[in-house]
Design a protein that fits this description.
This protein is α/β, with parallel strands linked by helices. The chain contains 14 helices and 10 strands. The protein has 2 domains: about 1-215, P-loop containing nucleotide triphosphate hydrolases (Rossmann fold); about 220-345, Helicase, Ruva Protein, domain 3, CATH 1.10.8.60. Bound molecules: adenosine-5'-triphosphate (ATP) and magnesium ion. The site of magnesium ion has 4 residues, from helix 2.
């Protein structure tokens, strides 16, 4: 299980867990965006979008924040499920208590109870100290069950009991302990279908799914792509202390038309790559569309193939001429027809 990690306190929580914070902090090794050493949280990482789809999601999330009901957040990977969960927590009356995201994928049934309900020292071989477990560690706050579909079937009944009775029984100490923990859950699987197939318990499904928030994939609200590009542009210009990089209308159009299979996470990674590498936006957009690995584009002049130099020169001329092919051809001192042929060759059009 991949759970967060608590700072301070005499009892360990179990595994690693991430605690809710209200600022972006530089914290190498912590949960981070796209593998970069920056951590984004509810307030510093607002849920960005102008589309009706995003407005609906935000409206629903905000309307359920103050209640204690279970919320199931569905959406493909990278659509912002955890961000919405954090927002619900941040706007709830529990915001001064922990927010603990728990990645339920890979929890073994044997460890489930100790990780969730805690254990006492000596409860089993290897239990060298008392452990609170996730539910008690988030007492008064909120647990986000990420990838909830992956909880082993046998453990689902135990979790349901804790949710219903609002108490947990630590391993090795069979005395129920009252808890006041709210549960939010996220999934990129179709949980209702899993219930039909007998892979997920119906009773737990109903309990978690008092309110269901579905975050659509980015390709279904691509009018948000430009605002997301601007949002992450500002963010990474600030983080990497670089001048803002202008994106031309053409690049924006190409990116807006792209399907973004990795959703907002992929888009954020693209913008970060732009700021880290300094590669021309047009070229980087083209690489995204054609799925060219970054390593195929050396940045220094050394080691560039003739073809790469030609391509870079073309892209630069296009950018400088604001994508006017006639002007670009003049800059490159070639006939317009030659440029048109080269654009095709390099898959730039
Ligand atoms: N609408 C949005 N506005 C701003 N940032 C967003 C938005 N949606 C997602 N992000 C950012 O994209 C990244 C991925 O989001 P998040 O981790 O919440 O996705 P997820 O749906 O939980 O993905 P997974 O299923 O892979 O766990 C995060 O850095 C998050 O801050
Ligand atoms: Mg997630």
């Amino acid at each position: 299980m991949n759970v967060g990690h608590r700072s301070g306190g005499s009892e360990s929580v179990g595994g690693r867990f991430r605690r809710g914070r209200a600022r972006a902090v530089r914290h190498p090794g912590e949960a981070c965006i796209m593998g970069s050493p920056f951590r984004l949280d509810a307030e510093s990482a607002p849920f960005v979008g102008i589309s009706q789809a995003v407005k609906n999601v935000l409206q629903l999330a905000d309307s359920v924040a103050k209640s204690d009901c279970g919320v199931l957040i569905e959406g493909e990977s990278g659509t912002g499920k955890e961000l919405i969960a954090r927002r619900i927590w941040a706007k709830s009356n529990r915001a001064d208590k922990p927010f603990l995201p728990v990645n339920c994928a890979g929890i073994s049934e044997s460890l489930f109870e100790s990780q969730f309900f805690g254990h006492v020292r000596g409860a089993f071989t290897g239990a060298e100290q008392n452990m609170l477990g996730v539910i008690r560690a988030a007492d008064g706050g909120t647990v986000f069950l990420d990838e909830v579909s992956e909880i082993p079937y046998g453990s689902q009944a135990k979790l349901l009991r804790a949710l219903q009775e609002r108490e947990v029984m630590p391993v090795g100490k069979p005395v129920p302990v009252k808890v006041d923990t709210r549960f939010l859950a996220g999934t990129n699987r179709n949980l209702a279908e899993m219930v039909q197939e007998g892979k997920f318990r119906r009773d737990l499904y109903y309990r978690l799914n008092i309110v269901r928030i579905v975050i659509p994939p980015l390709r279904e609200h691509n009018e948000d792509v430009p605002v997301l590009l601007d949002h992450f542009g500002r963010l990474f210009a600030d983080i990497y202390r670089r001048e803002p990089i202008e994106l031309s209308r053409e690049v924006r159009a190409v990116l807006t038309g792209y399907a973004w299979p990795g959703n907002v996470r992929e888009l954020a990674a693209w913008v970060e790559r732009l700021y880290v590498t300094g590669i021309a936006p047009q070229l980087l957009a083209d690489m995204l569309i054609n799925d060219t690995p970054l390593t195929a584009q050396p940045r220094s002049a050394e080691g560039l193939s003739l073809k790469q130099v030609e391509r870079a020169a073309i892209v630069q001329a296009l950018e400088r001429s604001d994508f006017n092919q006639r002007k670009a051809a003049r800059m490159l001192q070639v006939h317009r027809a030659t440029l048109a042929r080269k654009l095709k060759q390099h898959k730039l059009i």
